[in-house]
């Protein structure tokens, strides 16, 4: 009889245990299915590190079509974990977003397909467009999504009529690659002849003057001045040994254009010519933020800020050569292959070859001085309307070949050019989102609190657990 009772008791306990396990697993399965269909997250961090801003949430709510994100990171990289957390937060806010992580070393064909040249690149595809993000943060990602969902395209104009580089030519000197890259960034690219138009169109997000070989006419220069007065953004790419008629024009905005050519010994390290300056360090600016890729310039001239800048104008150097370079002023000696650094006439490195002039339109001398009477077009824009931007930008580079078809894909040339255009067209800061600081708050305990914590964790809790275990053991022993 005792044996039967023990077997019956074991069977009862065993069946109860199995039923409890099955019931518990069923509950967990139901909870998992519910959470998968209706996820819920709670951000307990003090800084709200895992909570998107209201601006981002509003944009995500407006998404009606799927957006796919391809993130190119090395496997098990620390930055990959942070990017994954951010993308998961976006996906939680709108399930029309999907993402995939790709290791460019393991899947190089996909990296080539999307023209990815560095780790940490995110490719967003949706609404029939594509956007590239080089920094995995909320501001960059939200702005890229906004560009995808926005129907209206911003217009970029390229000046023609002076032997500028062609947007349509497919040869090594053409700009067809640059045009294609701009169109992928959702820009509408058009040519502009100021001899046929009285002024720069009002819908111009930026105007590019790429490698003019002949001087601009005074009427065109007046139109450019007017464009800057109303908050325009002008990108000028000037090659050495070319008479563009822009020297005096640029001096009025604090920029010196010298008749020289840059010689860089560092180029030999990269297998290039002495006439191919390389830039590896950049000035502090939004354009160069987080940009650490070398750029190359074919036969460039120096571009420098004036020692005394006009009032209301600030000039920053964006790109300069290493200290091993210099600006050669004796071009005849250079053609004979006998150029060498001359302390009296040449300028030692680092040699600036790209500068940005920021023009304060509210300043007293924001309008450049002129001895000639203003034209009707200039008079119409003397008073900047209240709704107009308060600043204008003029970016000057001493080379136009660094973005032609043969150099656009060289190292970081293309990415740097797109950074410049996005800044001038005000695309890099469509939405400004303050980055949250993940700062911890220290816990300071008194001596009494420390002793209580020590005794509680090391003594009291273990004793309680041992007591419970001993009690369970005694109860089960008595039931046998």
Verbal overview:
The chain is of the alpha/beta class and 480 residues long. It has 12 helices and 18 strands. The strands form 5 sheets. The chain has a 7-stranded mixed beta sheet with strand order 6-5-7-8-18-17-14, sandwiched between helices. Strands 2-1-3-4 form a 4-stranded mixed beta sheet, covered by helices on one side. A 3-stranded antiparallel beta sheet has the order 10-15-16, with no helix packed on it. Strand 1 (67-72), helix 3 and strand 2 (97-102) form a beta-alpha-beta unit. Mean pLDDT is 84; it is low at 364-386.
Summary keywords:
480 residues, alpha/beta, 7-stranded mixed β-sheet, 4-stranded mixed β-sheet, 12 helices, elongated
Beta-strand segment tally? 18
How far is the first residue's CA from the last residue's CA? 13 Å
Order of adjacent strands in the largest pleated sheet: 6-5-7-8-18-17-14
Mean pLDDT: 84
Give the percentage of residues in beta strands. 15-25%
Helix tally? 12
Q: What low-confidence regions span 5 or more consecutive residues with pLDDT below 50?
A: 364-386
Write the layout of secondary structure elements.
Elements: H1 2-37, H2 54-61, E1 67-72, H3 78-93, E2 97-102, H4 108-113, E3 121-126, E4 129-133, H5 138-149, E5 154-159, H6 176-184, E6 187-192, E7 204-210, H7 218-229, E8 233-237, H8 247-251, E9 255-257, E10 261-264, E11 278-279, E12 295-296, E13 303-305, E14 313-320, E15 325-328, H9 331-335, E16 347-348, E17 352-360, H10 376-379, E18 391-397, H11 413-424, H12 447-478
Parallel strand pairs: 1-2, 5-6, 5-7, 7-8, 8-18
Antiparallel strand pairs: 1-3, 3-4, 9-13, 10-15, 11-12, 14-17, 15-16, 17-18
